[in-house]
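Researcher: Structure prediction, please.
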Amino acid sequence: MAEVEQRLNICVRAADYNKNVAAPLPSTHQILMICELKNIHPNIIHIDAHQKNMGSFLNFVTSGKLPAIIYGNEEPYRAIDDAEEIVEFLDETYPNPPLKSFSKSALNIQRRNFLSAFRKMLKNHSGEEKLLEELQWLNIKLKEKKTRFLDGDTIKLPDCYLLPLLHLIRVAGKVNKFEIPEKFTRVWDYIRAANELPAFTNHMPPDDLIIKHWCN
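Model: Predicted structure follows.
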């Protein structure tokens, strides 16, 4: 008898200005990218994080953390509310194509805290220097690799983590008159390679939604 595919619900934070779309969070973009790359078709549930009881969501995910997944075909359903654990679950449960990277250099790039540098830049223009340092470091590492992505010419999990962050930096940074310098040619090559992938562009938050969420 063929194995019955388990139900998979992905709960994402709804955008503040449109409850029918996902908030422009890198972790959400990352998880939806992985689903498309693996040909997974989950049920997407938009959760209004400002509701006091958040509906029945808290019955399954008591922490209230988003994004989260709820899966299984019968009660008790299981839930995961940690983004890294969600990624690990998806890659192990749906092994094809394999996206896990064993490249130490790719994993080291993934561990860099670009998001922290970006947040500091939004709060204080003096934070631009730190963000530029991080992007310059990334440009050097990409030059050393000479490949389209962080672990070869096909996309892997470290790319799914980093590319949504770069998109966020590129769009929201403009409000603070910050742009990724053109001289970081390998960073731009990397972004352009991502823009050729439907798995990346299909789940890319609109620019106006990013600006409203991150810059207001």
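Model: The chain has ten helices and five strands.
Researcher: Thanks, that helps.
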